[in-house]
Write a structure and sequence with these properties.
Strand order of the largest sheet: 3-2-1-4-5-6-7
EC number: 2.4.2.18
Number of domains: 2
Number of helices: 15
InterPro entries: Anthranilate_Pribosyl_Tfrase (IPR005940), Glycosyl_Trfase_fam3 (IPR000312), Glycosyl_Trfase_fam3_N_dom (IPR017459), Glycosyl_Trfase_fam3_N_dom_sf (IPR036320), Nuc_phospho_transferase (IPR035902)
GO molecular function, one term: magnesium ion binding
Structural class: alpha/beta
Catalytic activity: N-(5-phospho-beta-D-ribosyl)anthranilate + diphosphate = 5-phospho-alpha-D-ribose 1-diphosphate + anthranilate
Largest sheet: 7 strands, mixed
Strand content: 5-15%
Radius of gyration: 19 Å
Order of helices and strands: HHHHEHEHHEHHHEHEEEHHHH
CATH class of the largest domain: Alpha Beta
Family: In the C-terminal section; belongs to the anthranilate phosphoribosyltransferase family.
Number of strands: 7
């Protein structure tokens, strides 16, 4: 399908097949489409509403063109959000990664600089002294030996450069905002995926089912967070062994009191790092929200049998102070690569 035909189709609010979406995305990601064609297609898709078939086809193209990270590890999991919730919290998912690593899973963290927050994963890692300019083999060693490694999206998705200009000029959410979490370079089969809208909860679970994921929790909190919230109920679509079940969780189910998020908001990556370090040793409300999210990742990774057990394991890890050691170990490990 040619770009102009695809644009006309979606402008009529008609859905594309998997094959047609795959071909259009291939044209975008290989530089065959012009900036105006890319923008027209993305706007048309957003106005129509993307289907699970279209999203999975687009993600498949990105996976085919990415630079992969090949792992020799078990219990591999990613904790990631689409961003765009506007909450400006400290980086909960990144903090949770170190707790999960301390609990025995292997975290293949895929992320970028902040989209809507003051501190994306990459921003936080930079101020923590963790080097991002690693090749695939070095990232694999971090994950296998430390238990956590960070894949900086631009290093693994060079084909994204063709869409950067139109996306920046448009300044609105498009299909690309939800593709990042679907294109983990390590192929993490287990995931805690936070989304910015309730309609994406079942949709993204269906997409990940189509893409072959094993165990996933897609989450959206009623206060708008793209992660498990400390202040409101969180809606979940859980994919496990090809089946999807939807339910709602809240902190009290895990022996944690619901609390305001006001003390968890930050203005910079430096502010975020302070709260991350507190959370890694079990201090304050930062530790509680991290335990909830780390517990979810423990569960989907397979190191715990239930979500409740996962949260308890996360709290035990925080009490041991091992997650903070993991943070420092990763910083040292990546510095060695730079020498």
């Amino acid at each position: 399908m040619q770009m102009r035909d695809a644009i006309a189709t979606v402008m009529r609010h008609e859905n594309l097949s998997f094959a047609d979406t795959h071909e259009v995305m291939r044209q975008i990601m290989t530089g065959e489409a012009s900036d105006s064609q890319i923008a027209g297609f993305l706007v048309g898709m957003a106005m129509k509403g993307e289907t699970a078939e279209e999203i999975s086809a687009a993600a498949q193209v990105m996976r085919e063109l990415m630079k992969p990270v090949r792992l020799d590890a078990e219990n591999v999991v990613d904790i990631v959000g689409t961003g765009g919730d506007g909450a400006n919290l400290f980086n909960v998912s990144t903090a949770a990664s170190f707790v999960v690593a301390a609990g025995g899973a292997h975290v293949a963290k895929h992320g970028n600089r902040g989209v809507s927050s003051s501190s994306g994963s990459a921003d936080l890692f930079a101020v923590a002294g963790i080097h991002l300019d690693l090749d695939a083999a070095q990232v694999a060693r971090c994950i296998e030996q430390v238990g956590v490694g960070f894949m900086f999206a631009p290093n693994h998705h060079p084909a994204m450069r063709y869409a950067v200009g139109p996306r920046r000029e448009m300044g609105v959410r498009t299909l690309f905002n939800i593709l990042g979490p679907l294109t983990n370079p390590a192929g993490a089969p287990n995931q805690v995926l936070g989304v910015y809208s309730p309609h994406l909860v079942p949709l993204m679970a269906d997409v990940l089912r189509r893409l072959g994921s094993h165990h996933v929790m897609v989450v959206y909190a009623e206060d708008g967070l793209d992660e498990v919230s400390l202040a409101a109920p969180t809606h979940v679509a859980e994919l496990k062994d090809g089946e999807i079940h939807e339910y709602t969780i809240h902190p009290e189910m895990f022996g944690i009191e619901s609390q305001s998020l006001d003390t968890l908001r930050v203005q910079s990556a430096e502010d975020s790092l302070r709260l991350v370090e507190q959370s890694l040793v079990g201090e304050g409300p930062a530790a509680d929200i991290v335990a909830l999210n780390a517990g979810a990742a423990m569960y989907v990774s397979g190191v715990s049998d239930t979500l409740k057990e996962g949260v308890a394991m996360a709290q035990d890890a925080q009490d041991s102070k091992l997650p903070l050691e993991k943070l420092r170990e990763l910083a040292h490990f990546t510095r060695v690569f730079q020498q």
